[in-house]
Amino acid sequence: MRWDVVIGLEVHLQLATASKIFSGASTHFGAAPNTQACAVDLAMPGMLPVLNEQAVRYAVMFGLGIGAEIGMRSVFDRKNYFYPDSPKGYQISQFQEPVVGRGSFEITLEDGTVRHIGITRAHLEEDAGKSLHEDFHGQTGIDLNRAGTPLLEIVTDPDLRSAEEAVAYLKTLHSLVTYLGISDGNMAEGSMRCDVNLSLRPAGSQELGTRTEIKNVNSFRFVEKAIHHEIERQADILENGGRVIQETRLYDADRDETRAMRSKEVANDYRYFPEPDLLPVIIDEAFVDSIRATLPELPRERRQRFVDIYGLSHYDATVLSANRALADYYEAVVSDCGDPKIAANWVQGELLGQLNRSELALADSPVSAPALAGLIRRILDNSISGKIAKQVFEAMWAGEGDADRIIEARGLQQVSDSGALETMVDEVISANPEQLAQYLAADEAKRKKLLGFFVGQVMKVSKGQANPQMVNELLARKLS
Amino acid sequence: MHTQTVAELARQLREKQFSSVELTRSYLDRIQALDGVLNSFVTIDESGALAAAAAADARLAKGDTAPLLGIPLAHKDIFCTRGLRSSCGSRMLDNFVPPYDATVVARLRTAGTVMLGKTNMDEFAMGSSNETSFYGPSQNPWDTSRVPGGSSGGSAAAVAAMLAPMATGTDTGGSIRQPAAFCGITGLKPTYGRVSRLGMVAFASSLDQAGPMARNAEDCALLLNAIAGVDPLDSTSAEEPVPDFTATLERPLAGLRIGLPREYFGSGLDDATGTRIHAALALLEQQGATLVDVSLPHTGLSIPTYYIIAPAEASTNLSRFDGVRYGYRCENPADLHDLYTRSREEGFGDEVKRRILVGTYALSAGYYDAYYKKAQQVRRLIRQDFVDCFREVDIIAGPTTPGPAFALGAKTSDPLSMYLEDVYTLAVNLAGLPGMSVPAGFSNGLPVGLQLIGGHFDEARLLNVAHQLQQASDWHLQQPDIKRPK
C-alpha cells in the first residue's frame, strides 16, 4: 500500500540575547554548572520575572522575516508541571495569545521545486535547566544555567510531506534566523531543537491519520533519520492491520530508533493560565516599524540579487546565499577580485570542498576572503593558470602564505616571455617529427586535433606554466 | 518610650532625647517580657537590631534627618530578609535564610529603620486567625484567649502590644485590615502595584500587596512613604507618582462624600459592631462629610470569586517548594516522586494543602472555563461596582469585619465560617483598590475596625480621613492590659 506522509514541525529556537528572558543572568553556553543561575532562575521565594525586551524584538524580527501577523498584544501563561530542572514548577510560555501569528515560509527542494509551508504561530517561552544523570552515583545533578534562556517556539502547519522537505524547511529556517541574527543557530549546543509530528494516510486521502510526536531531535541528519524510521514503523503497523497510538516518542540517535516515552510522562494536564507576575505585552506600530527598519537583507532577497547583479545561476545563488557568513565571504571575494563567476566557482568548489574535508566551519577557514581574491586576481591577470591556481590554493590552505608569495617561492609564474616560449615550441616540433609529418599531411579539420598534441607537449615541458593562449598562437604560426 | 507614636519617636531621636540603641533596647526588653504570652514574633534579631540602631545613631549624629531614621520596626515573616530566616509561617521554610532582601525590606533599611525581628503569620498568609502558623498562633493583646486575626496577626499583635512602633504586613484578601481591626490598630492595604512585591513570598500574585501597620494614620503615612513606588524588578508595580502621604493629612473633610454600601450593613453584621461603625461615621459627618447610601451589588460573589482565584494562583506559586533547592526536604527519599510527595506532605500544613487542592482543581482541563475563567469575569463585575460607586462618592466606608476577634479554636474546624470573616475585605483586593482599617471603638472590650476604601492610588485620601477621625477620637490611643507570663 502507498502512504502519504504528513509532517508538522515544532522548532525550539534559542534566541541570541545576552541575558535570560526573565532575569539578568548570562545566557553564555558552557559555563560551570549553576554559575549562571540567579535567584530568579533558581525560583527563590518572592522572586519575580521581568521580560527581556530584546527577546520580544527578536520574535518580532522573525515574524516580519516570514511576513507573519505580529501579536500587538501577547500574553504569557504558566504551564504547570513538576520536574527538577523546572525550578518554579511551571514554565512561563505563551498559550492563547502568541507574539507571532500566522505566516508562511518558502522552501526550495534540491530538484528546484518550490513549496510553501504554513507557519501556525511562534511564541516566546523560557528554556528549562538540565538534569544530569551521569557521574552522580545513582543521584541526579541539576544544572540551571540554561533555565530561563529565551526560546522562540516556531510551529508549522502539517504541510511537510517527506524527510527531505522537513530538512529543507529546517535548513531554510536556520538560514533565515542566522541572517536575522536572532539565534546563533548552533545545533550542537542545542540552539535549534526540533519536535516532529508525523502521521500517515492512504495515498490521496484527505483525512489525517493518528500522529505521533518525536521529541527533541537535534540535528538535520537525525531529523531525517528519525522521520524515515518513524514512517517505516507506522507503515508496518498500518499494513499489519494495527492502529497507531497517539503518543510522544524519543529518537535515540545511538540506536537509530524511536521509542515511546512512559505514558506517565506525557499524560500531563498543564493547567495553563495567564502569568499574573507579568503584564500583557502591548506593542505598537512604531515599535514594529523601528524593527522593520533595521531588518537585514534576507536570504531570498540576497539570492535574487546574486542572480540579477552577478549573473549567477539560480542554483549557485541558492548555495551561496543560504548561509549569511558564506554569502558575506563570497561578496567580499567578488568586491576584491571583480569577477563574480570565477569567485562563485572558487568559493563553491575549492573552498567549500576543503572546509568539508577538514570539517571546519567557515569562520575557521585558513584562507580568508581577501586571500582567495588575491589568488583569483593572479588567474585573471594571467600570472598563473587555473590548474596552477589549485596548487597555490592547497599551499595557502596549508599556511604557506598568500598567493603571490607562494607563486614567487615556487616559481609558478606563468611563462609569457615570447622568446622563451618560442624556444620551447621549436624544441617540441623538432622532437616530434612523426607528428609534424602527420600534421602537415592532414586536412584543416584534422589539423585542429593534432595541434592539441603539440600544445600539450609544450605545457608539459613548461611544467604547466606556459601561457596557453600564447603557445596556441606560436604553434599556429610555426606550423602553417 | 513605647507609648509614643513613630512621628514622636523620630522627633525625639533627632532632638537626642534618647538614642536609637536605647530605644531599640527598650523594645527588645518589652518583647522579652511580653511576647512569651503573645507569640507575635517568630524570630528576634537582637544583634542585628542593635547594630542597625548604632548605625542609625551615627547617621543621626551627623545631622541626618531622614524621617524614619533609627525607628525600630517588625517585618512580617513573609518578607525575605538577607541573612535572617524567612519562614512564611511554614515548616517548609523553617530553615530558609534568604541571600537577599525584599524591596520593602531594602527600602526600609535604606531609610535607617531598625528591624527588631520577624512576626508570626498564618502559613503562607493563608488564614484569618494566625492559627495556621507552624509556630503556633499569636494571641490578641486585648484578650489572649482570642485570635489577633490574620494573616498579618503577629504584626498587628506586636504593634497593639507596643512591642514595635510599626510593622509591615501583607494583604491578599484582608490580611492587613482584619488583624488591624481585631487588634485596634491602623493598617493600610495600598492599591495593587503601589508597593513592590519583590522578595515577598507569593500567595496570590494578582492580589498580594504589602502595606503599613501602626498605631495611627500618620505613622502609616510615614511608613508608606518609605516603601511605595515603582520597582523595575516587579513588572506589576505601578509607574504612578508617589505623593508625600503626610502632606495632606490635615485637609478638612468638608464636602467629602462617603458611600455606605448597603451590602456591608446587612444581616451578617454583628449589631454591636454596626453601632460602633455608625458612631465613627457620625464623627466624620460632624466634620463636614456627607454620608451617601450606595450599592456594590456583586459583594456576595466576592467570597466564591476570591476562593477560586487566590487558590488557583497559590497552587502554582507554591509549586517551587519541592524539596529540591531549598526549604524542607523529607528524610531519605526513595525516588523523585517520593521526594516531591513527602516533602510537600510533611512541609505544608492543612490549610495550605486545602488551597493547593482547590486551586489545582480550578485550573484543571475541563474545569478552567467553569471556575477560573468565570471567576475572572465576575472579578471584572466586582471592580465595575466600585468604578460606578466612585462616580458618586469620594471614598467608601463600612465595617472591616462582621464582628470583633473570635476565640482561638472557634473556627479552625470550619473553614467556611473562617472564610466568611473576609466578606467585607476581599472585594477590595479583587478590585485592586486601597483599603484601610481604623480603630472605631470597642465592643465588649474588643476593638472594632472601620474600613475605608478609596479609588485607585488614592491612599492619601484614606490616610487624610483616618487622620481626621483620629483627631476627633481617642480609640486608637487605648492600650491593652497584657498579663505578663508568670
From TrEMBL, chain A:
GO terms for molecular function: asparaginyl-tRNA synthase (glutamine-hydrolyzing) activity; ATP binding; glutaminyl-tRNA synthase (glutamine-hydrolyzing) activity; transferase activity. This is Aspartyl/glutamyl-tRNA(Asn/Gln) amidotransferase subunit B. Allows the formation of correctly charged Asn-tRNA(Asn) or Gln-tRNA(Gln) through the transamidation of misacylated Asp-tRNA(Asn) or Glu-tRNA(Gln) in organisms which lack either or both of asparaginyl-tRNA or glutaminyl-tRNA synthetases. The reaction takes place in the presence of glutamine and ATP through an activated phospho-Asp-tRNA(Asn) or phospho-Glu-tRNA(Gln). Keywords: ATP-binding, Ligase, Nucleotide-binding, Protein biosynthesis, Transferase. Pfam families: GatB_N, GatB_Yqey. Coiled coil: none annotated. Residues 328-479 form the Asn/Gln amidotransferase domain. It catalyses: L-glutamyl-tRNA(Gln) + L-glutamine + ATP + H2O = L-glutaminyl-tRNA(Gln) + L-glutamate + ADP + phosphate + H(+); L-aspartyl-tRNA(Asn) + L-glutamine + ATP + H2O = L-asparaginyl-tRNA(Asn) + L-glutamate + ADP + phosphate + 2 H(+). Heterotrimer of A, B and C subunits. Its EC number is 6.3.5.-. One of its GO terms (biological process) is translation. The keyword Phosphoprotein does not apply. It comes from Kineobactrum sediminis. The keyword Manganese does not apply. The lineage of its organism: Bacteria, Pseudomonadati, Pseudomonadota, Gammaproteobacteria, Cellvibrionales. Belongs to the GatB/GatE family. GatB subfamily. InterPro entries: Asn/Gln-tRNA_amidoTrfase_suB/E, Asn/Gln-tRNA_Trfase_suB/E_cat, Asn/Gln_amidotransferase, Asn/Gln_tRNA_amidoTrase-B-like, GatB, GatB_C_1, GatB_Yqey_C_2, Gln-tRNA_amidoTrfase_suB_CS. HAMAP family: GatB.
UniProtKB/TrEMBL annotation, chain B:
Keywords: ATP-binding, Ligase, Nucleotide-binding, Protein biosynthesis, Transferase. One of its GO terms (biological process) is translation. Allows the formation of correctly charged Gln-tRNA(Gln) through the transamidation of misacylated Glu-tRNA(Gln) in organisms which lack glutaminyl-tRNA synthetase. The reaction takes place in the presence of glutamine and ATP through an activated gamma-phospho-Glu-tRNA(Gln). InterPro entries: Amidase (IPR000120), Amidase_CS (IPR020556), Amidase_dom (IPR023631), AS_sf (IPR036928), GatA (IPR004412). Pfam families: Amidase. Belongs to the amidase family. GatA subfamily. This is Glutamyl-tRNA(Gln) amidotransferase subunit A. Residues 22-463 form the Amidase domain. Gene3D superfamilies: Amidase signature (AS) domain. One of its GO terms (molecular function) is transferase activity. The lineage of its organism: Bacteria, Pseudomonadati, Pseudomonadota, Gammaproteobacteria, Cellvibrionales. GO terms for cellular component: glutamyl-tRNA(Gln) amidotransferase complex. Its EC number is 6.3.5.7. It comes from the Bacteria. Heterotrimer of A, B and C subunits. The keyword Ligase applies. Transmembrane segments: none annotated. NCBIfam families: gatA. It comes from Kineobactrum sediminis. The keyword Ligase applies. The active site is at K76, S151, S175. PROSITE patterns: AMIDASES. It catalyses: L-glutamyl-tRNA(Gln) + L-glutamine + ATP + H2O = L-glutaminyl-tRNA(Gln) + L-glutamate + ADP + phosphate + H(+).
